[in-house]
UniProtKB/TrEMBL annotation:
Keyword Cytoplasm recorded: no
The protein, known as: Peptidyl-prolyl cis-trans isomerase
Annotated organism of origin: Citrus clementina (Clementine)
Annotated PPIase cyclophilin-type domain residues: 1-65
One Pfam family hit: Pro_isomerase
GO cellular component assignments: cytoplasm
Matches recorded under Gene3D superfamilies: Cyclophilin-like
GO biological process: protein folding
InterPro entries found in the cross-reference section: Cyclophilin-like_dom_sf (IPR029000), Cyclophilin-type_PPIase_dom (IPR002130)
Keywords, in A-Z order: Isomerase, Rotamase
Record field: catalytic activity: [protein]-peptidylproline (omega=180) = [protein]-peptidylproline (omega=0)
Described purpose of this protein according to its UniProt entry: PPIases accelerate the folding of proteins. It catalyzes the cis-trans isomerization of proline imidic peptide bonds in oligopeptides.
Length: 66
């Protein structure tokens, strides 16, 4: 993502359901490996509040480099 000069970053989404409305609009790549799928399941089950925002902060850290 980019919000102006010197702000380049990255943004990615892991989906747990089919997202037909994204077809032909975004590049899709990658897959979750090994125990990572268990982590995705735990994140998917975090309770949400208003505006469907998670009530618990979920941070992915020390996940490797590309």
């Amino acid at each position: 993502s980019n919000s102006g000069p010197n702000t380049n970053g990255c943004q990615f989404f892991i989906t747990c359901a089919k997202c037909d409305w994204l077809d032909n609009k975004h590049v899709v790549f990658g897959r979750v490996l090994g125990d990572g799928l268990l982590v995705v399941g735990k994140i998917e089950n975090v309770v949400t509040g208003p505006n469907n925002r998670p009530k618990l902060v979920c941070t992915i850290a020390e996940c490797g480099e590309m």
